[in-house]
């Protein structure tokens, strides 16, 4: 570790606000861009980086860095992005289970409500073609991200992004309908 990094690390441990502000100012834009390569969403990227700096400020006294400060920052952001994507996958599984349960339930009232079924079908069919194809492969055929990426010949991160955007569009479209809003 360079002497400059040792000095910076020592100042972080002392909670030197001027050093912390300088690090934030210097690293924030690059870390947000770096996070964006994983999560493909600027707002989420900004949240991840801001949460990292909040953690750094709160836990800086106990920081144990063996590499350079720069390497530590980027590795931390990478790990936080991967954790975010892992958590998204868990949410997806729960949402999928809920959707499957809702569609296969024996509740005659739900199954007979053509308005709900039509609304869901229209919302799904309104997705852009490529997004619709990916959505159907994931949720109707039950393929995992890697399988879809192989079929479509695009990166798994692109698949994740498309699925995230599809869910947002569907939620927005379906929330406009008061009868569907209850299920969301």
From TrEMBL:
<dbReference type="GO" id="GO:0003677">
    <property type="term" value="F:DNA binding"/>
</dbReference>
<dbReference type="InterPro" id="IPR014284">
    <property type="entry name" value="RNA_pol_sigma-70_dom"/>
</dbReference>
<dbReference type="InterPro" id="IPR036388">
    <property type="entry name" value="WH-like_DNA-bd_sf"/>
</dbReference>
<protein>
    <submittedName>
        <fullName>DNA-directed RNA polymerase sigma-70 factor</fullName>
    </submittedName>
</protein>
<dbReference type="Pfam" id="PF08281">
    <property type="entry name" value="Sigma70_r4_2"/>
</dbReference>
<dbReference type="InterPro" id="IPR014327">
    <property type="entry name" value="RNA_pol_sigma70_bacteroid"/>
</dbReference>
<dbReference type="Pfam" id="PF04542">
    <property type="entry name" value="Sigma70_r2"/>
</dbReference>
<dbReference type="InterPro" id="IPR013249">
    <property type="entry name" value="RNA_pol_sigma70_r4_t2"/>
</dbReference>
<keyword id="KW-0805">Transcription regulation</keyword>
<keyword id="KW-0240">DNA-directed RNA polymerase</keyword>
<keyword id="KW-0804">Transcription</keyword>
<keyword id="KW-0731">Sigma factor</keyword>
<feature type="domain" description="RNA polymerase sigma factor 70 region 4 type 2">
    <location>
        <begin position="118"/>
        <end position="170"/>
    </location>
</feature>
<dbReference type="InterPro" id="IPR013325">
    <property type="entry name" value="RNA_pol_sigma_r2"/>
</dbReference>
<dbReference type="InterPro" id="IPR039425">
    <property type="entry name" value="RNA_pol_sigma-70-like"/>
</dbReference>
<dbReference type="GO" id="GO:0006352">
    <property type="term" value="P:DNA-templated transcription initiation"/>
</dbReference>
<dbReference type="InterPro" id="IPR013324">
    <property type="entry name" value="RNA_pol_sigma_r3/r4-like"/>
</dbReference>
<dbReference type="GO" id="GO:0016987">
    <property type="term" value="F:sigma factor activity"/>
</dbReference>
<feature type="domain" description="RNA polymerase sigma-70 region 2">
    <location>
        <begin position="23"/>
        <end position="88"/>
    </location>
</feature>
<dbReference type="GO" id="GO:0000428">
    <property type="term" value="C:DNA-directed RNA polymerase complex"/>
</dbReference>
<dbReference type="InterPro" id="IPR007627">
    <property type="entry name" value="RNA_pol_sigma70_r2"/>
</dbReference>
<comment type="similarity">
    <text>Belongs to the sigma-70 factor family. ECF subfamily.</text>
</comment>
């Amino acid at each position: 570790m360079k002497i400059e990094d040792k000095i910076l690390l020592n100042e972080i441990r002392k909670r030197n606000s001027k050093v912390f502000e300088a690090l934030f100012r210097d690293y924030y834009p690059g870390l947000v861009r770096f996070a964006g390569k994983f999560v493909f969403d600027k707002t989420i990227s900004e949240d991840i980086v801001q949460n990292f700096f909040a953690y750094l400020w709160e836990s800086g006294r106990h920081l144990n860095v063996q590499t350079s400060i720069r390497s530590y920052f980027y590795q931390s952001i990478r790990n936080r992005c991967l954790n975010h994507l892992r958590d998204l996958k868990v949410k997806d599984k729960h949402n999928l289970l809920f959707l499957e349960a809702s569609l296969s339930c024996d509740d005659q009232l739900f199954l007979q409500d053509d308005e709900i079924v039509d609304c869901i079908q229209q919302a799904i069919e309104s997705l852009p073609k490529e997004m619709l194809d990916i959505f159907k492969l994931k949720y109707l055929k039950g393929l995992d991200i890697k399988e879809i990426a192989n079929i479509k010949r695009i990166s798994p991160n692109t698949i994740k992004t498309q699925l995230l955007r599809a869910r947002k569009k569907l939620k927005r479209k379906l929330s406009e309908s008061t009868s569907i809003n209850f299920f969301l």
